[in-house]
Write a structure and sequence with these properties.
Family: Belongs to the integrin beta chain family.
Shape: extended
Helix content: 10-25%
Main location: membrane
Number of strands: 45
Subcellular location: Cell membrane
Strand content: 25-35%
Protein name: Integrin beta
GO molecular function, one term: metal ion binding
Structural class: alpha+beta
Largest sheet: 6 strands, mixed
Number of helices: 19
């Protein structure tokens, strides 16, 4: 082989040992930045003399201990760590401070408020968020009511709601405001009748109803309960044709029209009162409305003007807008539709459902109960995370209760003044957002306060800043010398950038990438670069091609129980390397023989072999899981009776052939049967009682020891049948 080709091959070769190592060596990192992105345990050796002849550049990247063992000093290892910096950390407050009532935007219920995280790939950065529910926190409540004809008697009871609810809410907060809105349906067929007469009065001729409308903001939020009563008392019932109502249009406008509604940055409650179901996205097609709801405010003179133009919003769209605007929803619905709204509540975080009496007489109690339920639960949510960033929560709630997973985001049964904490961990994988800083936010649902977190990604090492462009050490200036290695210029490859991509893609060099002079270059699993195979990367980073010709991989091995190598080994070059005590092509054959031990401690009772933890009986007379069952065999006592009799007493059928046929056991004599071993003296022992030719009983024990030798203890004293009967006459 051409010496030049051999040298290039050595310089750029992908060693199999490297690919089969840890996450650091598997990354085949060509720079310090690539190395630290491979995992939190990875370090890069910057010592220029670290590499031995023939070793490739990626050998510099390994776990810290491995680099030290290879001879890299600790001072020469780049291993940057992430940090957490708190930038704003105002103390938690109540509504009153030093005798002065604070404004809503001066109240602090979550701490800290701003942080910066420096994230190293794979290394979680943790911090603690503390939440305290403030006393006397302001509340805005907007009452959104269905004014279709079936709600006529409910309207009468709601007309005095303002002052009555004000009185009750004063027990919770001194700063309470209330507003009112109503809805019916989209003003097109087939939801309403569009005949001129029905447009003026959609009800029967003897009923005085107002013209149908989609949504009307009757009263923006106010602290004047009397004004609420006066305006609501002037409202009239309307009507429509179908049973589901257009409430979703109204909820969307209440959520996004903050200025018209008058929402403050305080607790925002929306009470949705109806005795019917709801239309949602797609239903607008019945009226020829196909444009999706745009989620924007379209109130003119407090009336929703685009109901005929935009479809109803979807549930997901409502969830998004309610969350963005920190609105907690209370569905006050009749018993008939409670199951429907209970399912809806499960889809909308921080919402509640209450059963409305047929005339809305219990609406105040319903609101108070729902508010107490909502305000006693704290649920954290975060804004959308950049790709490659994950977040986890551990909650530490009252009475020592902790939660993880989705339960780690929430605490329940929180009373005013209670303080809870959340342990938050943020982890990045690789170098998200190409290294640009990102900002995410965490907030408790239903509250306006939020925590701002700036994410800075550690994508390069400190030594990167000290790089020498066009360094002579990189083959006549074809790369930047940084962190002890060459980072090649565009179009150059090799350990010291000695190859041009254009020059090396020749037929001669390609021949060096064919296994056994075949036709496939790099086994069709890689590219031939500088005369050496560089294997392709898989979509799944855990799956890798390897080998000099990319002929190996770690994902094509045999499987057992749908697990690669049965879960008891690792896949190397398409062959399972089994863990200790396992064998087989899929490592599905356990070598542990404990499952094959018979009651006499022998493997398969000495009548078979143990294969993959299961006995294969070689004696056809024996069967069972440990080859101990022999349906056609005589009992141990009966089988050995003649040999024991001839050896112990010189009598019996085998007395003439005793020495030849009965030397297979060790005989130990005892005077009396009471001296024979008890069951607990030896772990596995058979007690025998047999009769001789003179109708006398003799007693012996038969045991197979762990070394497979047989031991027989026999009592010299015989008993007649008569004596035996005396022994048991009490039983008989």
């Amino acid at each position: 082989m051409d010496v030049r080709l051999l040298l290039i091959s050595v310089l750029l070769g992908l060693s199999r040992a490297q690919l089969d190592g840890n996450e650091c060596t598997k990354a085949s990192a060509q720079s310090c930045g690539e190395c630290i992105q491979a995992g939190e345990k990875c370090g890069w050796c910057t010592d220029e003399g670290f590499l031995k002849e023939g070793e490739q550049k990626s050998t510099r990247c390994d776990e810290i201990e491995a680099l030290i063992k290879k001879g890299c000093t600790k001072a020469s290892i780049e291993d940057p760590r992430g940090t957490v910096t708190v930038n704003k950390n105002q103390s938690l407050t109540d509504r009153t401070k030093d005798g002065v009532k604070l404004k809503p935007d001066q109240i602090t219920q979550i701490q800290p408020q701003k942080l910066s995280l420096d994230l190293r790939s794979g290394e979680a950065q943790k911090f603690i968020l503390t939440f305290k529910r403030a006393e006397d926190y302001p509340i805005d409540l907007y009452y959104l009511m269905d004014l279709s004809y079936s709600m006529k008697d409910d309207l009468e009871n709601v007309k005095n709601l303002g002052t009555d609810l004000m009185s009750e809410m004063q027990k919770i907060t001194s700063d309470f405001r209330i507003g009112f809105g109503s809805f019916v349906e989209k003003t097109v067929m087939p939801y309403i009748s569009t005949t001129p007469a029905k447009l003026l009065n959609p009800c029967t001729s003897d009923q005085n109803c107002t013209s149908p409308f989609s949504y009307k903001n009757v009263l923006s939020l106010t602290s004047d309960g009397t004004q609420f009563n006066n305006l609501v008392s002037k409202q009239q019932i309307s009507g429509n044709l179908d049973s589901p109502e257009g409430g979703f249009d109204a909820i969307m406008q209440v959520a996004v029209c903050a200025n018209q509604i008058g929402w403050r940055n305080v607790t925002r409650l929306l009470v949705f009162s109806t005795d019917a179901g709801f239309h949602f996205a797609g239903d607008g097609k019945l009226g020829g409305i196909v444009l999706p709801n745009d989620g924007k405010c379209h109130l003119q003179d407090n009336m929703y003007t685009m109901s005929h133009y935009y479809d109803y919003p979807s549930i997901a769209h409502l969830v998004q807008k309610l969350s963005e605007n920190n609105i907690q929803t209370i569905f006050a619905v009749t018993k008939e539709f409670q199951p429907v709204y209970q399912e809806l509540k499960n889809l909308i975080p921080k919402s509640a459902v209450g059963t409305l009496s047929s005339d809305s007489g219990n609406v105040i109690k319903l609101i108070i109960d729902a508010y107490n339920s909502l305000s006693s639960e704290i649920i954290l949510e975060n804004s959308r995370l950049p790709e490659g960033v994950s977040i986890s929560y551990i909650s530490h709630c009252k009475n020592g209760v902790s939660g993880t997973g989705e339960n780690g985001r929430k605490c329940s049964n929180i009373s005013i003044g209670d303080q809870v904490t959340f342990e938050v961990a943020v982890t990045a994988k690789g170098c998200p957002s190409k290294g640009k800083s990102e900002t995410i936010k965490i907030k408790p649902l239903g509250f306006t306060e939020e925590v701002e977190i700036v994410l800075n990604f550690i994508c390069e090492c400190e030594c990167h800043k000290e790089g020498i462009p066009n360094s002579p050490a990189c083959h006549f200036g074809n790369g930047t010398l940084e962190c002890g290695a060459c980072r090649c210029n565009e179009g150059r490859i090799g350990r010291v950038c000695e190859c041009s991509k254009d020059e090396v893609r020749t037929e001669d060099l390609d021949a060096n990438c064919r296994m056994d002079n075949g036709t496939d270059i790099c086994s069709n699993n890689g590219d031939c670069v500088c005369g050496t195979c560089e294997c392709q990367k898989r979509d799944n980073p855990e799956e890798r091609y390897s080998g000099k010709f990319c002929e190996c991989d770690n994902f094509s091995c045999d499987r057992s129980n749908n697990k690669l190598c049965g879960g008891h080994g690792r896949c190397e070059c398409r062959k399972c390397i089994c863990d200790a005590n396992y064998a087989g092509s899929a490592c599905d054959c356990p070598l542990d023989t404990s499952t094959c031990l018979a009651s006499n401690k022998q493997i398969c009772n000495g009548r078979g072999t143990c294969e993959c933890g299961v006995c294969k009986c070689t004696d056809s007379k024996f069967q069972g899981p440990t080859c101990e069952i022999c349906p056609t065999c005589p009992g141990v006592c009966t089988k050995n009776k003649d040999c024991v009799q001839c050896r112990a007493f010189g009598t019996g059928d085998k007395k003439d052939t005793c020495e030849k046929e009965c030397s297979y056991f060790n005989l130990i004599t005892k005077k009396k049967k009471e001296e024979l071993p008890e069951p607990n003296d030896q772990p596995y022992i058979n007690h025998c009682k047999e009769r001789d030719a003179n109708d006398r009983w003799f007693f012996f024990t038969y045991a197979t020891k762990s070394d497979s030798t047989i031991e027989v203890h026999v009592a010299e004293e015989l008993e007649t049948f008569f004596i035996c009967l005396q022994d048991y006459q009490g039983v008989l």
